[in-house]
Amino acid sequence: MAVVFDRTKGLLDVPTHYCPGCTHGIIHRLVAEAIEELGILDRAVGVAPVGCSVLAYDYFACDMYEAAHGRAPAVATGVKRSIPDSIVFTYQGDGDLAAIGTAEIVHAAARGELITSIFVNNCIYGMTGGQMAPTTLPGQVTETSPYGRDIKTQGHPIQVSEMISTLAGAVYVERVSVDTVPNILKAKKAIKKAFEIQMKGLGFAMIEVLSTCPTNWGLSPTESLKWLQTNMMPFYTLGVKKDTTEGEVK
Amino acid sequence: MADKVLMKGNEAIGEAAVHAGCQCFFGYPITPQTEVAAYLSRRMPKINRVFLQAESEVAAINMVYGAAGAGVRVMTSSSSPGISLKLEGISYIAGAELPCVIVNIVRGGPGLGGIQPAQSDYFQATKGGGHGDYRLLVFAPASVQEMVDLVQEGFDVADTYKTPVMIMGDGMLGQMMEPVEFKERPAKALPEKDWAASGLRGRKKHNVVNSLFLKPEELEKHNEKLQAKYAEMEKNEARYEATNCEGELDIVMVAYGITSRICKNAIKMLEKEGIKAGLIRPITLWPFPTKAFDEVIDRTKHGFVSVELSCGQMVEDVTLAANGRKPVQFFGRSGGMIPTPSDVAERIKAIVGGAK
User: Fold this and answer.
1) Does the distance separating the beta carbons of B63 and A77 come in below 8 Å?
2) Which residues of A are less than 8 Å from B52 in CB distance?
3) A168 to A86, A175, A176: CA distances (angstroms)
4) Bridge partners of residue B272, in order along the sequence
5) pLDDT in tens, B206-246
6) What is the ipTM of this complex?
């Protein structure tokens, strides 16, 4: 009998700790599949800092680092510079990458560091229990914005992909979502391309993945997907934000 | 034998790292250590090694974490305020048991402090600094030659114990020029880095660089493993130099780094006045060489005086080493002020009751 779908070798055969309805599981699988399909599992190194995905080292089958909050792009730089033929990726949440780790992601991108960053954006701090993130939308209620994010006192959310796109070292930046099957397929294609760009040594690539947090949003998994579509997508628009690889990678 | 060359302390540190097989250097400019980075920015690309100026000390130490975890020899350097920023990363490096060398060319603090030489980071270096139960092996060279030797030694010790090693100099050592020789070191038998996370490369099980242990029983076990390692380091790695410590002594000075050289001159001045002062110079600040104190404690009439370029930090370890058996005094200057040998001699005379 023909096998039409199989577990990726990029992930270990273990249960994850993620909440029901959380999309980290899907994104993990897309990253792992891309690594397996590109034949780079043997030289891939992942870096996951503090956040919901801090235990990613228990799930990915490649060599892994747990990093300090926000510092994954610096750690990844250390790995890539010391072992240039390794394929290095960071897997970071929005609280991590867009707040405490802003300097590290901006400068890794500016240097054109040959790493791939997977940026999982769910507009909230998940691990610590649902506090306001730099990506939290205006009016969004969180544990630390109980009256809704007030842009007058709590500032504006950051569109990281658009910001990173302004940097010459970043050659490919795309925002994707995993809310529907077609979008999951698009996300997979983007993630794979980001790794191929690293394999060809073209520059820094980042894929922002819109993700849900049913637990801290206080919504069911289905409602969460709808919330993502209704509230996140208009502000965090999907699509290629930058691609200067000029067809070198399809 | 290699020829002697005249080199600035900071540049000699860079060259010593090259000799030790340091593959990567990640730094950030800060006075008075910037020449380490500047030297390696010239040197490393020419030998196909990595020099990278990071966006901050925080990023630099995390790059060190990445490279050390990948199994290569790596170094960073900074000065006091920059080391404060690195402490988070140093704690992670210690927790994940990674070998690396960290250079601190100390300047006066607290806060932005000043840019002149000081030894006021003793607590920071030896009592943790960062969070958690960890130790940093701290070498305190007293000359440019010793900086060279201890940087090279530092890489070996770091690899042996899978631990971060600090070279703690001061602004004077970093900036002064002295003749140095880069000796051929016998290759040491070092443990294989089979834990390195540099890609599976045919390995069956993945390697993980990590300091997270969510289960209390696992974290306690991990801490006990670290403590056993530190106990081993205390047993094997404490180093010191004893000068003029034979026979009956009026007093024993305790000083490290550049201050020890001032004390050596004070010894000569005191000798002329009939005062016999010895000197214990800790070469490792942690592990602190308590054995040196046991050797002289019965022969030093007025106990010990800790001479520092700080407001009384090492004196606490001297007090612990004396353990109530003999009095312990303190003499120090701070903020970049340097005592002269006669300042030290005057203080000693006051303690022992004037010239004999």
Assistant:
1) yes
2) 77, 81
3) 23, 18, 21
4) none
5) 999 999 999 999 999 999 999 999 999 999 999 999 999 99
6) 0.97
